[in-house]
Structures are given as structure tokens and as C-alpha cells.
Write a structure and sequence with these properties.
It is built from seven helices and seven strands, in the order E-H-E-E-H-E-H-H-H-E-H-E-H-E. It is an alpha/beta fold.
């Protein structure tokens, strides 16, 4: 069907902050290594969309070296404010942090971003990009993927319970562009593993 919509969502390669289990939102950190990727399905996009932070652009260049990367600032990760680049152990005695962990939709990190604003900007960006049928590939952040899976997966999910692993491609499909732009949940969801070879 010509108007079928498929979204491929891929999390960027790990950064040092990811390995150190820090909250990394708008900090513009590079990925740890350059790699060549192998997908278990044939995917060769001409265009890849992602946030304007370099870890997404660098990953796209590694995974899809022939594709044009289009940076979209609205596809950034949540801005963690004062929690940025800190670990759970560093924050666990902070009362506001503990409240935020328990009620992430009500409590805003100091100098950070309200979750509803994060959700709205990501969804607005998605619907601005996807206006006709076809396959769309995104290299984005873990929080962005978790949000989209929670909102668009065929089974309703809670954001906190959704996982977005590195080196995994989440593919969501709709039968028509009309269903997608109308806000319907996807009709199918699959996960594909990405294997990589380090480039020296």
C-alpha cells in the first residue's frame, strides 16, 4: 500500500556519560567509538532524521554513511537541568530529585524541562516530518524513543516501563498515512538487533 507508514527508531551509540550512567540530555557529548553497523533487515535510507546533538549525527554517519542527515533540534533528549551529567548516587539524597523520580510528569528538574513540553515538541517534530506514506529512519535519544513507543505502540505502555536499548532498531508500522496523522497507534511493532564492528 503506497500510503503505508513505517518508522525506524534507533538510539545513538553510547557516550561516556551513558557508560557512567549519568543523565545526559542537552550536553553535546561525542560517541565513544566509530563503528560499522550490520542490520538484520535490509535498510538503506537516503535521509536520516535526528536531533542536532553530535552523538546522533555521528551515529547516523556510522550506521548510514551514504544517507543525508537532517538535524532537528526538537528531537533532542529531555533537558535534565541541574540533574544533567549526574548519577543516581550523586542525586539520591536530593529531595527534588526523589520527587521527580516518583512523579516525573508533575515535578520539573530545577532549570530543566517540563515533561509535557518535551512530549509536545517531540510529537510536533514527528508529525512535521511524516506527512506522507513511506519509510522514515530516525537516530535519536533513549527518552525520545521511549516516549514514542509509549505514545504510538499498538499496546498502551507507561513511559517509565518502556526500554530503549542501544543497537536496537524499533520499527513501527501503520496501514495508511491517514491512520498515522489521525493519531492512531501503530498496527505492528518489531525489534531488530544491530551488530557493529569497531572502525580503527
Amino acid at each position: 500500500m503506497a500510503s503505508r507508514v513505517v518508522l525506524h527508531l534507533i538510539r545513538h551509540e553510547k557516550t561516556a556519560a551513558n557508560v557512567e550512567r549519568k543523565y545526559i540530555g542537552w550536553t553535546d557529548e561525542s560517541i565513544l567509538m566509530n563503528v560499522q553497523a550490520n542490520f538484520n533487515i535490509n535498510i538503506q535510507p537516503n535521509i536520516v532524521y535526528g536531533s542536532d546533538l553530535k552523538r546522533c549525527k555521528q551515529t547516523s554517519l556510522c550506521y548510514f554513511p551514504r544517507a543525508q542527515f537532517i538535524p532537528v533540534p526538537s528531537l533532542r533528549e529531555l533537558n535534565f537541568g541541574d540533574f544533567e551529567m549526574k548519577t543516581y548516587d550523586q542525586l539520591k539524597d536530593n529531595e527534588i530529585y526523589r520527587q521527580w523520580i516518583d512523579h516525573p510528569f508533575k515535578i520539573v528538574p530545577p532549570n530543566g524541562e517540563d515533561f509535557q513540553m518535551f512530549e509536545q515538541r517531540v510529537l510536533n517534530a514527528l508529525y512535521e516530518i511524516v506527512k506522507q506514506g513511506g519509510e522514515y529512519t530516525f537516530v535519536v535519544h533513549g527518552g525520545v524513543i521511549r516516549l514514542l513507543l509509549a505514545k504510538l505502540s499498538f499496546e498502551e505502555q507507561i513511559f517509565q516501563q518502556v526500554l530503549a536499548n542501544h543497537r536496537t532498531m524499533y520499527s513501527l508500522a501503520w496501514d495508511s498515512i491517514e491512520h498515522f496523522v489521525g493519531g492512531a497507534r501503530c498496527t505492528s511493532l518489531s525489534e531488530g538487533h544491530i551488530t557493529v564492528n569497531e572502525v580503527t
